[in-house]
Amino acid sequence: MKGEDAMETDGRLDDRKVKILKAVIQNYLDTGEPVGSRTISKLTDLQLSSATIRNEMADLEELGYIVQPHTSAGRIPTDKGYRLYVDDLMAQKEEEISLREQQVGDKEKELDSMKDALSEKVDRVEELLQNVAKVLANNTNYATMITTPKVTGNKLRFVQLSQLEPNKLLAVIVMEGNLIRNKVITISEDISPENLLKLNLLLNTTLTGLTLQEMHLGLISKMESQAGEHMGIVKEVLDAIVETISKADDLKIYTSGATNIFKYPELSDSGKASELIYALEEKQGLSGLVNDKDGSDETEDDNHGIQVYIGNEAPVESMKDCSVVTATYELQDGMRGTIGIIGPKRMDYEHVLKSMKRLQTELDQIAQLDTYPSIGSGNLKKEVITQNGETITYDSENEDQEEDVAAVAGGLGAVKLSEVADYSVDDVDLAGYGLDDTSRITVEVTYTSDAKDQTMTLYIGGENGSGDRYVMMNDSRIVYLISDEICNNILNQ
Fold first, then answer.
1. 209 near 155, Cβ under 8 Å?
2. What value does the mean pLDDT of the chain take?
3. Where in the chain is the domain with CATH 3.30.450.40?
4. pLDDT of amino acid 441
5. Which of 15-29, 163-177, 192-206, 368-382 is least confident?
6. Which pTM does this prediction carry?
7. Given this model, what pLDDT does residue 335 score?
């Protein structure tokens, strides 16, 4: 087997020691009690005497894979032993893992319930994540955590300047991952609609698709030179872009199953338990797991972004007596977060790893949001609004509509498809959102992408009473929430 070969690469463990070590670990995972040589002799097919197994276990202890907690007791795995076992487990091919999982029985039924639990309708991404933490805690009997997604690809998608007042401009900055920042810029000189349009074109043609590192001094100097008398405006916008890219979203961490630690005697000691529960409740220390993961050199392709920390490997001090398994989940456009499971060192690693992989798949399917195109005054060709049988058209080729086109382009460019009202709306429920055929406003957009004309249809529905409106994309079942202000800009109201 591949796993046994992996263990033998240590150079000091022969096949017999490998089998004995695996038997010790698997028995300890099941019972939580030190394992003696007689127990191993009954569990393996080695047909060896207890004395021979004792000698082999003594060698394993000398090599640091197992330890005898006290005289006359059996052995328990060390962190080194767990590490070898987990590395072996994670090295297995997907087919091999799947074959073993079919023999798990009740655990399989537990995991089947995961999809059903996650498929329940939720109103916001936050509720979905809280549900994930709860489901995972119930299915593993360990403590769990999950973070809100962060933007990992900090590229500029779009910039839109709009006139607010004679001496004020609104800069709408849209980053990859649909991170949006609005900044009001005070200007000392008047700017004509024509020059404002030119600035929008300059900013978007020069900066779209660039990271902060790619916005070098030479590029900025060239832009300022091209802006001429409006160089100060360009500087203000660039400062806002830098601030937006550099500013990290507030990291939220949801936890569940903290009381599960009392099920394991090795963690239920009053001092250890209180420290661990405090870490789970306060959550601040848990960011160490996320930060450590972000800086990991390990490739995510090998194990789907799954990492296992055993004992002292854990970056959180209160978890040095635990094992921690973390995994990366991804929503869209570089939006990634971290899932974590915290339990005893003798956790059921196989079940935990399977749960992580299954959850990654289910979460990706459930929370996959629609892809929204990058649209601005530089590539918007036409917008057609249909409401109550009446149609309004804004055409970029119509010189009399330059200002109107810039306004609707600003609204379209500021759309952020992240706040969800319904992940899978039924036809009978559309009227409640004002998105049925008779109530909704239809916005048909023609824009240029990769030198080709593209089309997109957006449906705008009713208000939710909290400053947002319900919105859907054509051929989608997801209802989003978008601010009244952005919707009004799209509709040029």
1. yes
2. 80
3. 96-148+251-366
4. 96
5. 163-177
6. 0.60
7. 65
CATH number of 96-148+251-366: 3.30.450.40
**Residue ranges of the chain assigned to CATH 2.60.40:** 369-493
Q: Angle, nearest 10°, between helix axes 231-246 and 193-207? A: 40
Taking the C-alpha atoms of residue 2 and residue 98, their distance in angstroms, rounded to an integer, is 15
Contact by Cβ (8 Å): 326, 293 = yes
Please identify which residue in the block is written with the tokens 């401009």. Answer: 169
More confident residue, 152 or 451: 451
Contact 473, 459 (CB under 8 A): yes
- The pLDDT assigned to 9 comes to 44
The dihedral over CA atoms of 18, 19, 25, 31, expressed in degrees to the nearest 10, equals -170
Averaged pLDDT for residues 389-413:
92
pLDDT digits (tens, 9 = 90+) for 316-363: 888 888 999 998 887 655 567 889 999 999 999 988 988 888 887 777
Tell me which CATH code domain 2-92 carries: 1.10.10.10
Q: Class of 369-493 per CATH?
A: mainly beta
Q: How far is CA 38 from CA 34, 49, 70, 72, 324, in A?
A: 12, 8, 17, 13, 31
